[in-house]
């Protein structure tokens, strides 16, 4: 078994190769004069090849890089190619919200399925959309790893883990069960790509350290609105935790300016806020795949 890594998947790939006790090799990347991408993998592959690549912004470029890296693995001898895409783009366009729109994530899933024998991701925005894949597909979760991190960091403190919306409720619940904290969720309405409304709700957070947990932080709008609601109810200290820290539009600075003490993220997206690795849950997801 060999683990191949693009630049966007490099740190997770190194940890995953350690956990799997597998060989690790980088995928070389280059450009043609017109800007088109080219990748190069070791030319004499065999057996199972795991390609680790995260579809971070610029998503379209990284989507294409994913497809050609998978193709290169197959073309150069792999018997079985597993695509490990810890953050997979377009997962939020998982249905036709308005007439005339696509189900973008289904198109992404079909393209990956055409180029890989199996797929593994982490905290997929809507887990039921794994059914869009035509190959075996698994969704790992960072909940336990985030929970363990919180348990160590906030040992002895009164801790509450809050989901900013119904969609993140399960992630918050699983995280809280590991760090032995209270958990609850807020109600959110999305008004536009950047604007959300959080509805008032009574929560038991007075004087507590509160960690808001979501699958992803994109612009930070959700976290900032959730923080306002929690501060009004007396939350003492606020932390923003997520699996995928996209942090677009200066989100990190805006979160810290809004009063968050820290951002706690995983290595599904390379950022300075990686506090937790998903290598263990990803390796377990790989083990669950049919041979
Ligand atoms: C959406 O429901 C997701 O779970 C996140 O809450 C959302 O994508 C975060 O985006 P933003 O940081 O831009 O509010």
Structure description:
The protein is 31% helix and 27% strand. By secondary structure, the protein is of the alpha/beta class. Helix 2 (59-75) runs parallel beside helix 3 and helix 4 crosses helix 5 (169-179). The two termini are 13 Å apart. 48% of the residues are buried. The mean pLDDT is 97. Bound molecules: ribose-5-phosphate. Ribose-5-phosphate binds next to strand 13 and helix 6.
Quick overview of this protein structure:
By secondary structure, this protein is α/β, with parallel strands linked by helices. It is built from eight helices and 16 strands. Helices cover 31% and strands 27% of the residues.
Which features would summarize this protein structure in a list?
alpha/beta; 8 helices; Rossmann fold; binds ribose-5-phosphate; six-stranded parallel β-sheet; 291 residues; 27% strand; 2 domains
List the helices and strands and how they pair.
Elements: E1 2-5, H1 10-20, E2 23-26, E3 28-31, E4 37-40, E5 48-52, H2 59-75, E6 80-84, H3 104-115, E7 118-122, E8 137-140, H4 143-153, E9 159-163, H5 169-179, E10 182-185, E11 187-190, E12 196-199, E13 209-217, H6 221-232, E14 237-245, H7 251-257, E15 260-266, E16 274-276, H8 279-288
Parallel strand pairs: 1-2, 1-5, 5-6, 6-7, 7-8, 9-10, 9-13, 13-14, 14-15, 15-16
Antiparallel strand pairs: 3-4, 11-12
This protein binds ribose-5-phosphate (R5P).
Ribose-5-phosphate binds next to strand 13 and helix 6.
């Amino acid at each position: 078994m060999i683990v191949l890594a693009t630049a966007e998947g490099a740190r997770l790939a190194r940890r995953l190769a350690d956990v799997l006790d597998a060989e690790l090799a980088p995928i070389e990347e280059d450009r043609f004069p017109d800007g088109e991408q080219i990748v190069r993998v070791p030319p004499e592959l065999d057996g199972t090849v795991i390609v680790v690549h995260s579809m971070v912004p610029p998503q379209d470029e990284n989507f294409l890089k994913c497809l050609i890296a998978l193709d290169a693995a197959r073309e150069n001898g792999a018997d079985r190619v597993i695509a490990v895409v810890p953050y997979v783009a377009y997962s939020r366009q998982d249905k036709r919200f308005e007439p005339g729109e696509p189900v973008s994530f289904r198109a992404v899933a079909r393209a990956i399925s055409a180029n890989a024998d199996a797929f593994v991701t982490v905290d997929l925005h809507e887990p039921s959309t794994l059914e869009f894949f035509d190959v075996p597909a698994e969704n790992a979760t960072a909940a336990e790893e985030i929970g363990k991190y919180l348990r160590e960091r906030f040992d002895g403190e009164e801790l509450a883990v809050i989901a900013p919306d119904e969609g993140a409720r399960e992630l918050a619940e699983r995280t809280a069960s590991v760090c032995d904290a209270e958990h609850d969720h807020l109600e959110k309405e999305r008004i536009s790509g950047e604007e959300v409304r959080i509805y008032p709700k009574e929560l038991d957070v007075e004087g507590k350290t509160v960690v808001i947990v979501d699958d992803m932080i994109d612009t930070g709008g959700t976290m900032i609105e959730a923080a306002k609601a929690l501060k009004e109810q007396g939350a003492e200290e606020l932390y923003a935790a997520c699996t995928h820290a996209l942090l677009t539009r200066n989100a990190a600075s805006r979160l810290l300016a809004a009063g968050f003490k820290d951002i706690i993220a995983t290595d599904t997206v390379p950022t300075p806020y990686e506090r937790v690795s998903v290598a263990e849950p990803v390796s377990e997801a790989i083990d669950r795949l049919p041979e």
